RNA sequence: GGCGCCGUACCCAAGUGGUAAGGGAGCAGUCUGCAAAACUGCGAUGCGGCGGUUCGAACCCGCCCGGCGCCUCCA
C-alpha cells in the first residue's frame, strides 16, 4: 500500500482515496511568462511519476494541472516586449508542452487556465465576502486571515510569528498585514474583467481554489507543488477553500524539494538556473537520450530532498542508463540456449516486489531504481548461462513495465544507430566536453571501413579507426558474429 | 526573530533502533586480434563532531560545527 508524506500532518501516512480506486489530484503548474527551468521539470516529473504509479497500482487518476495566465509578471513581460498578455501566455504554454513532452511528462487530464475560470473565481470571492471572510476596499477584495482560525495549519506558522518577520510593506487599507488579495482592481492597460466590485482581475491564490473545486470537487485526494508553495500559496488556498465550503479541501499535501546549483536553490532571482531547452540545446546526445538521462537524474534522489544539478551528475546518469540499454541490446539477440530460463520468473518477481515496496514507501525512486539495477545484474548473469529468445523478450518486457512507472526504458533504440545529432558541449560547470561535429553517416562509413579492414586482418587500420572514433566519443562494440555496432 | 531542511566511501544515493542497499568512477582478473559489453574480486571497523539513553544507534535525546530553504514572486 502506498504511503505518502503529508505536509499537512507532517507525517508519512497510508494513502486512501476518497472514492475507492479513484484519485483526484491537483498540482500547481507554472506562471507562463518565461521558459521553464530544471526546477519546474523536477516538480512536473515528480507528480508525473506519482500519477503513473497510482495508475500502475490500479487507480483511475484525474490529474489537474493549471496554467497561471494572468499575473503581475505576465503583465510586466508583455509591456516590456510591447505585445499582449495573450501573446506571452500562448507562447510559453506552447513552450511548456514542448519542453515537458521532451521529458516524457504526460499531459494532465485537465490543464485549466485561470482566465477561463473568472466566473468561478468571482463566485468563490462572493461567497467569502458573504461569510465575512473577505472584505472590499476600493475595488480590491482581500481575504481576512484573522477571521480564519486555522490559518497557518499547513505551514505550521502562527499569525503572530509571521507578523514579526514580515518584510512586506504594510498596506494601510488591509485589516491585517497578512491579508491577501482575492481580486485586484485593474489599472489602465491591464487585463480586466467586470465584477461586482468593478473591473479587475483575480489574485494569484484564488484561481487554484476555484479550478480545483470545479474539476475535482470540494474535497479531493492530493494537492501538490514545490516546497516554496507551502507558504503562502497553499496556506491561502486552504483558507479560501475551507472557508468557502466549510469542508475539508485536499487530504494529502505533497511537496517536492528544490533543484540546486552548487548547493544553492535554483531560482530566477539568483539567476543560477538552466532552462530545459538550454539543456537540450547544449547536449551532445540525441534528444531522446537527453530526455531520458535528465529524467533518470531527476529521479535518482528522493523527491523531498534537495538535488544538485551538474554536468557531472548528468554524465553519471547517462552512464548508468547506458548499462540498461546495453543489456536491452543483448536481449534483442536471438538465442536457442535456455539454461537460465527457469530462473527468470523468480528473478523478475523478486525485483517487482522490491520495486513496489520502494515506490509504496513515499515514492522512493532511488530505491526503486536500485531494484531495477539489481534486476539488470541478475538478467546479465542469466544471459551468461543462456536465455532463450522467448525469455529475453519477457525480461525486456519486465523492464518496460516497471520502467514505465518512472518513464524510463521505453525506447527501442538507445544510442545504437541513433538519429543524427551534433556534438556540442553541455557546459554546466564551465568545462568543455564537446569534440566537434560527428554525423551518423560519417560514423557509419568509418565503421564499415573498419569492418572491411578487420576481415583482411588489417588490425592496424582497424585500431586506427577505433581510436579516431573513440577520441570523438564514439565507442565501437564488436559482436561475436563478426558484426560491429557503435554508440555515443 | 519564527518555522524547517540537509551533512553516509572519490562522486551520486538508500537505509531512521539490530550490526552500512544500489549505481557511477577506479583497480585487478576472465573473455577478446585489440577493445567494448558481461562476469568475478577489491573498496566506509564506520555514517559532520562531542556527550547521553539502550543489551545494541548512522538511526532516539541534548549540545556543537558546517551548508541551505521558507517567512516577499518563486517548482
Keywords:
single chain, 488 residues, alpha/beta, Rossmann fold, four-stranded parallel β-sheet, four-stranded antiparallel β-sheet, 15 strands, 15% strand, elongated, RNA-binding
Query: CATH superfamily of the largest domain, please?
Result: HUPs
Distance between the termini: 40 Å
Which sheet architecture does the biggest sheet show? 4 strands, parallel
Number of helices: 15
- Which strands sit side by side, in order, in the main sheet? 4-3-9-10
Q: How many DSSP-defined strands?
A: 15
Taken in chain order, the helices and strands follow as EEEHEHHHEEHEEHEHEEEHHEHHHHHHEE
Oligomer: single chain
Q: Class by helix and strand content?
A: alpha/beta
Assign a percent range to the helix content.
Answer: 40-55%
* Domains, number: 3
CATH architecture of the largest domain: 3-Layer(aba) Sandwich
β-sheet strand percentage: 5-15%
* Rough outline: elongated
So what's the CATH class of the largest domain?
A: Alpha Beta
Mean pLDDT comes to 90
| Unreliable segments of 5+ consecutive residues | 418-436
Description:
By secondary structure, the chain is α/β, with parallel strands linked by helices. The chain has 3 domains: 18-260, HUPs (Rossmann fold), CATH 3.40.50.620; 283-406, no CATH class; 440-487, no CATH class. The chain contains 15 helices and 15 strands. It has helices spanning 38-56, 72-81, 85-102, 118-130, 159-165, 204-216, 230-245, 276-282, 287-299, 311-332, 341-360, 365-385, 389-406, 440-455, 459-470, and strands spanning 3-6, 11-14, 22-31, 60-68, 134-137, 140-143, 180-185, 200-202, 220-226, 250-256, 259-261, 264-265, 307-308, 475-478, 484-487. The strands form 5 sheets. The protein has a 4-stranded parallel β-sheet with strand order 4-3-9-10, with helices on both faces. A 4-stranded antiparallel β-sheet has the order 5-6-7-8. Strands 12-11-13 form a 3-stranded mixed β-sheet, with helices on one face. Strand 3 (22-31), helix 1 (38-56) and strand 4 form a beta-alpha-beta unit. Mean pLDDT is 90; it is low at 418-436. The protein binds one RNA strand of 75 nucleotides through strand 3, helix 1, helix 5, helix 7 and strand 12.
Amino acid at each position: 500500500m502506498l504511503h505518502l508524506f503529508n505536509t499537512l500532518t507532517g507525517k508519512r501516512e497510508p494513502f486512501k482515496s476518497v472514492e475507492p480506486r479513484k484519485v483526484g489530484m491537483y498540482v500547481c503548474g507554472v506562471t507562463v511568462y518565461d521558459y521553464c527551468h530544471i526546477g519546474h521539470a523536477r516538480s512536473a516529473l515528480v507528480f508525473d511519476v506519482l500519477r503513473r504509479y497510482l495508475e500502475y497500482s490500479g487507480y483511475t487518476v484525474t490529474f489537474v494541472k493549471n496554467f497561471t495566465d494572468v499575473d503581475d509578471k505576465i503583465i510586466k513581460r508583455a509591456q516590456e516586449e510591447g505585445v499582449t498578455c495573450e501573446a506571452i501566455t500562448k507562447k510559453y504554454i506552447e513552450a511548456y508542452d514542448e519542453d515537458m513532452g521532451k521529458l516524457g511528462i504526460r499531459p494532465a487530464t485537465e490543464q485549466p487556465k485561470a482566465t477561463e475560470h473568472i466566473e468561478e473565481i468571482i463566485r468563490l470571492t462572493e461567497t467569502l465576502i458573504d461569510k465575512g471572510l473577505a472584505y472590499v476596499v476600493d475595488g480590491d477584495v482581500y481575504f481576512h486571515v484573522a477571521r480564519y482560525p486555522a490559518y497557518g495549519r499547513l505551514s505550521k506558522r502562527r499569525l503572530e510569528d509571521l507578523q514579526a518577520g514580515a518584510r512586506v510593506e504594510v498596506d494601510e487599507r488591509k485589516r491585517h498585514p497578512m491579508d491577501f488579495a482575492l481580486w485586484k482592481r485593474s489599472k489602465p492597460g491591464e487585463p480586466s474583467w467586470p465584477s461586482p466590485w468593478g473591473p479587475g482581475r483575480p489574485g494569484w491564490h484564488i484561481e487554484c481554489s476555484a479550478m480545483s473545486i470545479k474539476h475535482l470537487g470540494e474535497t479531493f485526494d492530493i494537492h501538490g507543488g514545490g516546497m516554496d508553495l507551502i507558504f503562502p500559496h497553499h496556506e491561502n488556498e486552504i483558507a479560501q477553500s475551507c472557508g468557502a465550503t466549510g469542508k475539508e479541501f485536499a487530504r494529502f499535501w505533497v511537496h517536492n524539494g528544490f533543484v540546486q546549483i552548487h548547493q544553492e536553490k535554483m531560482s530566477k532571482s539568483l539567476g543560477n538556473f538552466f532552462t530545459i531547452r538550454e539543456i537540450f540545446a547544449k547536449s551532445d546526445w540525441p534528444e531522446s537520450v537527453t530526455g531520458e538521462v535528465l529524467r533518470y537524474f531527476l529521479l535518482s534522489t528522493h523527491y523531498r530532498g534537495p538535488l544538485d544539478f551538474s554536468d557531472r551528475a548528468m554524465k553519471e546518469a547517462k552512464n548508468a542508463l547506458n548499462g540498461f540499454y546495453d543489456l536491452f541490446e543483448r536481449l534483442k539477440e536471438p538465442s536457442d540456449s535456455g539454461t537460465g530460463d527457469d530462473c527468470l520468473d523468480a528473478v523478475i518477481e523478486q525485483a517487482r516486489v522490491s520495486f513496489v515496496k520502494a515506490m509504496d514507501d513515499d515514492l522512493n525512486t532511488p530505491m526503486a531504481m536500485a531494484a531495477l539495477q539489481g534486476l539488470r545484474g541478475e538478467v546479465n548473469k542469466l544471459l551468461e548461462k543462456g536465455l532463450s529468445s522467448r525469455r529475453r523478450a519477457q525480461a525486456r518486457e519486465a523492464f518496460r513495465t516497471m520502467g514505465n512507472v518512472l518513464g524510463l526504458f521505453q525506447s527501442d533504440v538507445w544510442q545504437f544507430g541513433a538519429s543524427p545529432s551534433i556534438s556540442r558541449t553541455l557546459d554546466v560547470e564551465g568545462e568543455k566536453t564537446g569534440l566537434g561535429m560527428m554525423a551518423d553517416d560519417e560514423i557509419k562509413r568509418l565503421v564499415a571501413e573498419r569492418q572491411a579492414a578487420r576481415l583482411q586482418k588489417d588490425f592496424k587500420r582497424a585500431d586506427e579507426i577505433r581510436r579516431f572514433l573513440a577520441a570523438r566519443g564514439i565507442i565501437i562494440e564488436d559482436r561475436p558474429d563478426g558484426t560491429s555496432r557503435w554508440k555515443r
